[in-house]
Design goal:
The protein has 378 residues and is α+β, with helices and mostly antiparallel strands. Helices cover 51% and strands 13% of the residues. The protein has 16 helices and nine strands. It has a three-stranded antiparallel beta sheet. Strand 6 and strand 7 form a beta hairpin. The longest helix has 30 residues.
Length: 378
């Protein structure tokens, strides 16, 4: 950051990479083994990556996923979106200094985590997606639990919206800050809520429906009162998407078809199909943060020939530059958090002031952000 007093004038960054070698390991395994790795790309977006990879392999191998499995994939996909957006809401409240709201958002999130655990066996690293379908079915005994969870969120939705959107201090801290114009959002190829808050009408579920989304006519969520492209609009979009996810899950339950959950339940035969497959494909899904893509190339061998992941945050990081220019240093934490970045090992920034180099840690930035909030409350 190039600072003029407390104002950010120039912004640049050199993103690092926490390279865990997942893609390298994957290219030395067969596709079924890679699904295990995809769950571990991100602890919050487990089904996003496993589903994106599986869809790419299914296209190459010509595997048709049973309709029931597609519906179950959507149910879990949307439950993951709910818990991810609630996690983000808690982080945003924490960055602003509203820890009571932070605790509330994360307590409310537990209901979705419990549902995911009940359906998959795990709170994270679900292990539910398999090439050609899903590993577990939804039983009749589990349906009432899902209905109870949806009713729980429907009852809380207005309360959460009021706490976030009608609080005058949150509005002052977020409205008009971190602005990303429609043209900037398009030029920088942003995705997900970051793009939609700036007015870009785009959503993979709408534009390129996959799984069962084509049956439900999903529409991209845009700010209802016109897009300002600021932090406040990014809050609005995510809260409205929670309500949309509840509706999609309910529609899935109401029209859940009977049938098998795997195209090929015999593992040996599935591996044989994958081993013979040749070609390349891209699996695309709408993650909570935006479009996620997995590129896969197979050449009639047991191991895949190439595997490349492009997660949502890769598309959104560059939007920080126009968002932060002209803002106060105390606004950096909430603006940075507003795109819901998925990063590793980025815990401090270098600030140049009058030719001198200072270090502001994450704790320093959070302290400055909270001090600004307290000044507004006085």
């Amino acid at each position: 950051f190039g600072m003029e007093g407390e104002i950010v004038r120039t912004v640049d960054f050199a993103p690092g990479q926490a390279h865990r070698g997942i893609e390298w390991m994957g290219m030395r395994r067969n596709p079924v083994q890679i699904v295990h790795l995809t769950d571990r790309v991100c602890g919050i977006c487990g089904i996003v990556h496993s589903l994106s990879f599986a869809r790419a392999v299914e296209q190459i191998a010509g595997i048709e996923v049973p309709e029931r499995a597609d519906y179950i994939r959507v149910i879990l996909h949307e439950l993951e979106r709910i818990q991810s957006h609630l996690l983000w809401a808690g982080v945003a409240a924490h960055e602003l200094g509203f820890d009571s709201l932070f605790y509330l958002a994360w307590r409310v999130r537990e209901e979705s985590m419990d549902l995911i655990e009940n359906l998959t066996g795990n709170r994270v690293n679900y292990g539910i997606v398999q090439i050609g379908g899903v590993r577990r079915d939804i039983s009749e005994e589990q349906r009432p639990l899902i209905e109870k969870g949806l009713a729980y969120y429907e009852g809380l939705f207005d309360q959460m919206a009021t706490l976030f959107l009608e609080d005058s201090t949150i509005r002052m801290r977020c409205r008009g800050h971190g602005v990303l114009s429609l043209d900037e959002a398009r030029l920088l190829c942003t995705v997900g809520p970051t793009a939609r808050a700036s007015g870009l009408n785009m959503d993979v579920r709408q534009d390129y429906p996959y799984c069962a989304y084509g049956d439900f006519d999903v529409k991209a969520i845009l700010p209802p009162d016109g897009a300002h492209g600021d932090v406040y609009d990014r809050i609005i979009v995510r809260l409205l998407e929670i309500g949309q996810s509840i509706g999609i899950i309910r529609q899935c339950l109401d029209s859940l078809p009977a049938g098998e959950i795997l195209a090929e339940p015999k593992m040996a035969k599935l591996l044989s199909l994958c081993k013979k497959a040749e070609g390349e494909a891209i699996g695309r899904v709408e993650a909570p943060r935006g479009e996620c893509m997995h590129y896969v190339r197979m050449a009639g061998k047991e191991a895949v020939e190439s595997w490349k992941i492009k997660a949502s945050s890769y598309s959104n990081l560059m939007s920080w530059i126009p968002m932060l220019q002209g803002e106060q240093i105390a606004d950096i934490p909430i603006i940075v958090a507003s795109i819901d970045p998925c990063l590793s090992c980025t815990d401090r920034v270098a600030v140049v002031r009058d030719g001198k180099h200072d270090l502001l840690t994450k704790e320093d930035l959070t302290r400055l952000s909270r001090e600004k909030t307290r000044r507004m409350l006085q």
